[in-house]
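Q: A reviewer asked whether we had any structural model of the full assembly, not just the individual parts. We don't, so I'm hoping you can provide one. Inputs are below.
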Amino acid sequence: MLAKIHITLKKDVLDPQGSVIANSLKSLGFDNVRDVRQGKFIELEIEGKDRDTATKQCNEMCEKLLANLVIEDYSVEIES
Amino acid sequence: MLAKIHITLKKDVLDPQGSVIANSLKSLGFDNVRDVRQGKFIELEIEGKDRDTATKQCNEMCEKLLANLVIEDYSVEIES
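A: Here is a predicted structure for the entire assembly that you could use as a starting point for your response.
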């Protein structure tokens, strides 16, 4: 199964990388862009047949390694 | 409108960061994980009412600034 994991900064955490992107886009002429936030996107193949187990495992991976829960949120989607 | 942009390495480009994540997950006991790929996820607010224009603008942003088209692919989703 293919797992797609999004890791994003929590809403109230400053995102300097996002601000730099927003400024660069503005200087390129994209004036109608606001609130740029950059996050991580991780795709992985997980062996097994049970969707629920896979989701549980991915949540565990995020909590143990992939995300910093103090400042980041994560979401997991499983595609078979 | 909210634009969600995924930027991923092309399939045949080596992803050392993904390999490191895969190894770390294995050492944590997640033995059934393969093919980890890490990409970027960018969310931005784009002013305007026309979905097609917004999509076109986001494609342009990817081509001019956000993605390195030699090694990366991108995809754009617009949510209103």
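A: Points you may want to mention in the reply: Chain A has a mean pLDDT of 96. Residues 51-66 of chain A form the longest helix (16 residues).
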